[in-house]
Amino acid sequence: MESSASMELAKHLLLMFGTILALGTFSGLIARLAKVPDVVVFLLFGMLIGPGVLDLVNIKADSTINQMIMIFGSSFILFDGGASIRLKVLKEVWITIVVIATAGVLITAAITGLAAYYFLGLAPIVALLLGTVIASTDPATLVPVFKQIRIKDRVAQTVVSESAFNDAMGAILTFTLLSIALGVGEFSVGDALIDLLKQSFLGIIIGGSLGYLAALLIAHEKFNFLAEFAPVVALMAVIGAYMGADGMHASGFMAVFVFGIVLGNQESLGFKLTPKEGDELEDFVLTTALIMRMFIFILLGAQVDFSLMSLYLVGGIAVVIVFMLVARPVTVFLCALPDRRAKWSFREMLFMCWTRETGVIPGALAGMLVGMKAPGAQIIASVTFIAILMTILIQATTTKWLAKKLGLMVDA
Predict the structure, then answer these.
(1) Is residue 66 part of a domain?
(2) How far apart are CA 145 and CA 165, in angstroms?
(3) Around Cβ 149, how many Cβ atoms within 10 Å?
């Protein structure tokens, strides 16, 4: 009987996965015809097939299978984004990336928290907790957008790198404030800074080491005995980088991003794949990243709780408008303008002000707070979903238009 129940569950999951792949393929074609980022269409179709409408796919946000998809999918997409980063560009803009991914998260959280306090009438600590949850940007959204829309390199790579590095800061702030809200901890700037440096340093070391080892085994002139297994090596290393960093209480997302940077810049380290092996690895990465985008954003859309959102809809929209039109611009100008090395133009900073989609990572943080029954968790989850929908549906769809208006598009 137990075996039969397990078999039925397996068939049910298989059917849902097939539905997601079929719908994702159809959505991708629509996105191409409509000339909008595919994540937007994936999200909309996810909402359509979720429990709130057609109820074709119902995978709970806190289920094991959903958590596995979100963690691995985000990690692989982030690896793909890291592989597209060029060290030459990174050297030019690293100051802005570091400042905006650390101090920038604090600024965004503070302004958003103030808006939540005013519009939703939340207690100060809960309002600030809401601000920290949605303060970090989302690489799973931004990487595919910039894969489809060719933007000036240093702008695109700054925004993508920021999204990879700021998740550690967002998570640290969230759980520090949570401990205060629960009355089991006190905020310490020193402890928070030490924790951030530890998570960042370990993530960079683990990701960099695995990236070098992977490049050595697949692209070294003498030691490339795994060259024909390059896709499998990359897959193993993505999992290894995330799990290794997570096991050492470091940033897993930072580790996979740095791994991608190292592997993507292997020629600078003296390694080089043959054209055939390079093409096979690229095809594998592109296909896997596409499948992960389908699963992440269709599931994210299917998990939107319309009844919960409706309870705080007006106040939530007001908070997200402040978040998009006040908090982000203030953050960008305060963090990027002083960087004399990068010499950002007004148009570049204006573009960065608009490009900061919210997605998987804030959604995961909100889900964790609900599971822990944190103070104000239901309101935080509601506003987080509103932020995800508004930023992806409004900002992601207008990214190409704005880039053209600002003269930041480049030839493919």
Answers:
(1) no
(2) 18
(3) 22
- Calculate the alpha carbon distances from 297 to 23, 68, 151, 233 in Å: 12, 14, 23, 26
Quick check: pTM over 0.85?
A: no
Both 160 and 82 in one domain: the answer is yes
Q: Would you call 266 helix, strand, or coil by DSSP? A: helix
Q: Residues 354, 402: contact at Cβ < 8 Å? A: yes
Find the length of the chain: 412
Together in a domain, 48 and 84: no
Rg (CA), the chain: 21
- What total of structural domains would you count in the chain? 2
**Tokens found for residue 298:** 């269709």
Beta bridge partners of 409: 151
Percentage of the chain modeled with pLDDT above 90: 33
The answer to the question of residue 155 being in a domain is: yes
Please identify which residue in the block is written with the tokens 């629960």.
182
The pair phi, psi for residue 136, each rounded to 5°, is -85, 145
Query: Residue 184 has what pLDDT?
Result: 64
Question: Does residue 258 contact residue 78 with C-beta atoms inside 8 Å?
Answer: no
Question: How confident is the model over 358-381, as pLDDT tens digits?
Answer: 877 787 777 778 767 788 888 888
Q: Are both 174 and 39 inside the same structural domain? A: no
